[in-house]
Design goal:
Helices cover 30% and strands 25% of the residues. The protein has 238 residues and is of the alpha/beta class. It binds S-adenosylmethionine (SAM).
Length: 238
């Protein structure tokens, strides 16, 4: 006879676990005030880390708002955008911003935040904000984006996207392609990195060099953020 465990069919789909009770939250970075939908804590059943704002986004947004010249007139692609707080800030200064994520649930809230931003009074000075599905290492999805941007982007951005060891090599694979395509534009990758484990600190440096990229710490950006150590890295093709 089969054990009870083997016969145990669970009739729940993933929507049962998804908390989409988003609330509008307000964030200030320098002179920029952003309002967007997010959760205050992450769901753990699926990869829904992107439903909330992470310390790395605060770190990167503070850096970008203090150094907004970096963004002026640029075309930007953001990886692992989550609710979109970094891309939306950039749109105040940039020519164009494509925010990407791999999670369909996260892409829904990202789209909702783009619509919210469009309808706000700031939209007049906002760049065109777009969203696109992009799983790191997925060449087809990246080809789709690059078909629409054959010259590539001026900047690749990522906030708090190095937290799972298995995805870091794939992330750098995608970054390398974007930097190669944007070579003429001297494209660079700006990463808001938050340290949670030494193994990840080493892996980020190691994967950048394994992909033939130069990684440098931006001077003066080491900071403590929500009790964690953070730093801004700039990653380029040498
Ligand atoms: C910790 S959250 C950071 C979100 C946002 N950048 C922030 O700092 O608030 C990581 C984000 O990366 C996305 N992500 C994780 N693994 C990914 C992968 N393999 N490909 C694309 N996006 C991924 C998640 O869906 C999530 O939105």
């Amino acid at each position: 006879m089969d054990s009870g465990e083997e016969n145990d069919i669970v009739c729940l789909d993933e929507s049962f676990f998804i908390n989409d009770n988003y609330q509008i939250a307000r964030f200030t970075f320098g002179s920029q005030i952003l309002e967007l939908y997010c959760l205050q804590s992450a769901s753990t059943d699926f990869d829904l880390t992107g439903q909330m704002v992470w310390p790395g986004a605060e770190l990167l947004n503070n850096y970008l708002s203090k150094n907004s010249d970096i963004l002026r007139g640029c075309s930007v692609i953001e990886l692992g955008s989550g609710v979109g707080i970094t891309g939306i800030l950039c749109s105040r200064f940039c020519g164009e911003v494509v925010m990407t994520d791999h999670n369909d649930e996260v892409l829904k809230i990202l789209t909702r935040n783009i619509e919210l931003d469009d309808s706000s009074k700031n939209s007049a000075c906002s760049a065109k904000l777009k969203s696109a599905k992009l799983e790191w290492g997925n060449s087809e999805q990246l080809d789709d984006i690059l078909q629409r941007h054959p010259e590539g982007f001026d900047l690749v951005l990522g906030a708090d996207i190095c937290f799972q060891q298995a995805s870091v090599p794939l992330l750098f694979h995608t970054v390398k392609r974007l930097l190669d395509v944007g070579l003429k534009k001297k494209c660079r990758f700006i990463l808001g990195y938050v340290s949670r484990a030494k193994v990840m600190d080493d892996m980020v440096i190691g994967e950048a060099s394994r992909h033939g990229l130069r990684i440098t710490e931006v001077a003066g950006t080491r900071a403590e953020i929500r009790n964690l150590g953070g730093v801004i890295y700039e990653i380029t093709c040498p």
